[in-house]
Amino acid sequence: MSATTQDRYARLAALKPARRRAAEDEAPRGHAADTPEGAERLAQILGASPQRNRFGEHLALRRWFSEVIGGERTGDAASFYAPEGELDSAALRLLAPGAPQEATDPQQWLFLDTETTGLAGGSGTYAFLVGIAWWDAGGLEVEQFFMREHSEEHSLLVALAERMAERRVLVTFNGKSFDWPLLETRYRMTRRIQPPAPRAHLDFLHPARNLWRARLGSVRLAELERHVLGWNRGTDVMSELIPSIYFDFLRGGPPEPMVPIFYHNQMDLRGLAALASRVLSLLGNPEKHGQDGLELFGVSRICERRGECIRARGLYERSIASELPTETDRAARRSLAVLAKREGDLARACELWEGMLGNSREGLEAYEQLAIYYEHRAREPHRAAALVRSALAELRKANRLGTVAASVHRRQRARFERRLVRLERKAGRALLDALEAESQVNQ
Fold first, then answer.
1. Is the pTM here over 0.70, yes or no?
2. What are the tens digits of pLDDT across the range 287-297?
3. Which of 81, 90, 168, 318 is the most exposed place for a label (fewest CB within 10 A)?
């Protein structure tokens, strides 16, 4: 048996709890006899208590936070980003086009984050800790449901379904591809509990990538908290260690290592709530809330993808007027040129393409677009041919420098060479026509 298979079986075995020696009638009140040895101590440390429903018990913990992130403050972010009144419908349209009216009501939002027995998902992965949160009384109410052992999963899932029935808009960070599909699988596998159906599901991972990946590279929630929200959550457990810590607890290990996992889950929920408000304010009024050209560039991309081209063009103009990194500046100019061409503003498009010429991907595309313009619009094939010759020279340079893949080089060279043959033929005909016209005039 391979080491990987042995590890998988060991994890499955860990889901079978370490039973207490005491008889069931001797177990403390609120503590089942088959829960791990440290479950009662864990509840005391956390200030949590058992919660019962028709499927049994699970551990539950509730806390209210007036500030969105604990730990060290590193910037001038507001202490909490809870919105007042209805959310900006224009911002929400950019975030989730087609979202129902309920999504504009922040009282309908339910933030969700899970801690699981594995990071790859699949039917053998359990969500042993489910954290939810909602805005309340100017702060954030956080509730956590914990599966002390496998048999408490049904009870946990029922409690979650009840909370989701109260607030119908689910809000996550990468939850569309991980947390919520995993929970839906767990509901289906019970064959007894109907999975709740949110009216809308808002996920902030992709907006965060559009807005901040060019600046930060990583858009992990902890990095966004530090560099966008201005908070440092402090010492935190590593996500990849969480499953093994939980399995150790199930095997009868000490409860203390579990406490940072609850804290980690709380921090994720609080960070998500702050990030949601930050994104909405930025999408609603980027001119006011944008901190730099990179954020304006990010909003521009979102606007363009949602079909709001006029707004996107204005924001692209503002972003390139600021100090953008070279690669981002080229990308912004390329997108702006595409929008200008689409709207018939060829003068602005040509101006942008002229400023982009070079052996970068955008620069080579600019050569091609200018050649198209001079061939078909300006009717100057000789000038278009000169641009294509320059493009071929830049392409050869890029190939020598290794800045372009061999397959891309071959494909682009073939396309430019075909265009050059056609343009030289056109230029030759144009020259003959000009000479003939001149001859007729002289006669």
1. yes
2. 888 888 999 99
3. 90
